Amino acid sequence: MTERPLLSVRNLKKHYPITQGILSRQVGAARAVDGISFDIAEGETLGLVGESGCGKSTAATSIIRLEEPTSGEVIFNGRDSAAVSADATNDVTKFDDAQLKAFRRDAQMIFQDPSSSLDPRMTVGSSVAELLEVHGMSDKQRRRDIVQNLLEDVGLSASDYDRYPHEFSGGQKQRIALARALVLNPDLIVADEPVSALDVSIRAEILSLINDLQEKYGLSMLFISHDMSVVQDVCDRVAVMYLGEIVEIGDTEEIFTNPQHPYTEALLSAVPRPDPRRKRQDIELKGIVPSPTNPPSGCRFHTRCHRVIQPDEWDLEQSEWRSLLNFRDGVVEESLDVETTREMLRTGPADEDVDVADARLRAELREEYDLPETLSDQQAERTLSESLDHLVEGEYGEAQELLAEAFVTPCEQEEPAYADHGGGHRSKCLLTNDQASLQSAPSLKND
Ligand SMILES: Nc1ncnc2c1ncn2[C@@H]1O[C@H](COP(=O)(O)OP(=O)(O)OP(=O)(O)O)[C@@H](O)[C@H]1O
């Protein structure tokens, strides 16, 4: 590897405008990618992982400029790229049409659905050879020879040149897509979920092929996946993305054995381990990634984090604290519908004692949010009970005010900075920000 990375992404943002009305006035923005930075060295594979909606695909298409980034830099130091001249800035975001054409030769993309890059009316050989023609190779026989060799390299046969896409299985089509991506001898491949659409039985074959080709051609790769176990096999380093940001980045081994961000921990807890005795903590990642139009304040992961920080004034079990914040959000954001719950419970006799009915409602609301009958912290319990009384009495506003004031986490008030764990391992969480925040962090009683 050389010292100068092949690709340097700096503070890259892609915000989609949200418009309203006949004049399409912009009323907001979906911050799909919100300031990501990373390098990819020559011959290196970086995995970009996160759940659906985290912004992985938008990051990929913005880097390759299939979409115009909102801001940031994408510095590409192609090995012998015509896009890069001595006086050029190498910033893909500023490339003119000619530079972009050259860059598109040096940086190729593979998609989840291999059919998307194959014309069903063309033989697969012509589909692959077409790129050579577009980029100036006029000798037809030479094009055919190159493509036939390449088809063999990806595990197909030279005679497949004259067959049509519908004659191939999904796995074979992804092999053809790989041949198509490789035919111009690129330096960088951006692979967006290349095996997620394939049968589990053939995923390993394609991953192993990607590994072999990457080594044989000395490629750099940005490998996108929602599946941690897939990146483990293919990537040298891993960047974990959540709601438009990279929350942790480091060597694959380091990320898997010493994760620093709770989101990484949660993603890893879903990965099966070869030795079942070495069990990871079971962390259920509840809910979905919030909308990037209005991301949570402070740390964006705090609304789902199992380690969300508890201020010193409370002494709750960590799981209770998480449930309490979920309950608070349910009330404050009005997603908790007390009257519907009351109706649902009204299966007993119509003349049921009001006190009994109210007690059942309180118990049901606790249960909905995994709140125990009594919280382990007495003061917190008094506040929770009071808020439940308000809800049962129909005093929604009072409950909102009480909960919003009493239960506040530093994670929603302060945006974490990146903490450096050495060897290029960084994470963005208040718990690892500095010793001071570690001291004010909760005792993670359920660890
Ligand atoms: N054209 C668009 N306009 C507005 N919002 C968009 C647009 N494209 C994507 N988004 C939003 O940006 C966020 C990131 O989407 P993106 O597809 O990049 O995520 P992803 O991590 O690749 O997920 P997936 O694996 O499901 O594709 C999502 O909330 C998505 O709804």
UniProtKB/TrEMBL annotation:
InterPro entries: AAA+_ATPase (IPR003593), ABC_transp_ATP-bind (IPR050319), ABC_transporter-like_ATP-bd (IPR003439), ABC_transporter-like_CS (IPR017871), Oligopep_ABC_C (IPR013563), P-loop_NTPase (IPR027417). It comes from the Archaea. The keyword Transit peptide does not apply. Keywords: ATP-binding, Nucleotide-binding, Transport. SUPFAM superfamilies: P-loop containing nucleoside triphosphate hydrolases. Pfam families: ABC_tran, oligo_HPY. Residues 7-268 form the ABC transporter domain. One of its GO terms (biological process) is transmembrane transport. The keyword ATP-binding applies. One of its GO terms (molecular function) is ATP binding. Belongs to the ABC transporter superfamily. NCBIfam families: oligo_HPY (TIGR01727). This is ABC transporter ATP-binding protein.
